[in-house]
Amino acid sequence: MALAASAASARVQSLIPQKSLGGLKIGMVASQVRGVVGKPDSNKIVNHPLMGKTRQMKFGLVEVTFRGTASSATVVNLSTTSRKERTSGGIGVGSSEKALKSKLTGERCVTELGYRHCYIGKRSAGFVVTDFSISKSGRVTRITLGLVID
C-alpha cells in the first residue's frame, strides 16, 4: 500500500516549474533522456528558425528538442499536452488559469498577439522559462519548459 501511494505521489509531482518535466531537465544529452524515459516514439532532425538543424524526440505527448544533432547536443525545450504531468499542487494541462494563479508563485499571465499564456522565469537569452498556454476557455492546453535562446 505504501508503495502505491509513493508512486502516485511521484506522478503528481512530475512537473517542477523551472526545473523538470517528467524527470527530464534542460541541459540533458540524448543518452540521459533515454535513461529516464526509454526509447523515443520518434526521433527526427528538423530545421529550427533560430538554431538551424535540431534533434526532436517524442515520448508519447512529451516533445524534447535538442540544440543541434550531435550526441553531445543538450535539451533546450521540453513541451507536453499530457494531462499526466502535474505540479505538486496539481497544476497541469486542463487546469484553469484561476487555479494556476492560486497554486503557483511568481507567474505572470499575459495576452500577446492573441496568444494567452502564463509564465514563470525571465524571458531573456540564457534563462529558463516555464510557459503555460491558455485556451480561449481559460484552461491550460500545453506546458513548455524552455531555454530562451534569442
Could you please describe the fold and organization of this structure?
By secondary structure, this protein is of the alpha+beta class. It has helices at 2-12, 30-37, 97-103; strands at residues 15-16, 20-21, 42-48, 52-59, 62-66, 75-80, 108-112, 115-120, 128-134, 140-147. The radius of gyration is 16 Å and the shape is globular. The termini are far apart. The model is unreliable at 1-12 (pLDDT under 50).
In short:
The protein is α+β, with helices and mostly antiparallel strands and 150 residues long. It has helices at residues 2-12, 30-37, 97-103; strands at 15-16, 20-21, 42-48, 52-59, 62-66, 75-80, 108-112, 115-120, 128-134, 140-147.
Give the H and E element order. Answer: HEEHEEEEHEEEE
Work out the helix count.
Answer: 3
Number of domains: 1
Gross morphology: globular
What is the C-alpha radius of gyration, as a whole number of Å? 16 Å
Helix content: 10-25%
The total count of strands amounts to: 10
**In percent terms, what proportion of residues is strand?**
35-45%
The neighbouring-strand order within the major sheet is: 3-4-5-6-10-9-8-7
Structural class: alpha+beta
Oligomer: single chain
Mean pLDDT: 91
- Low-confidence region ranges: 1-12
Distance between the termini: 48 Å
What can be said about the biggest beta sheet?
8 strands, antiparallel
List keywords for this structure.
150 residues, two-stranded antiparallel ribbon, 8-stranded antiparallel beta sheet, disordered N terminus, alpha+beta
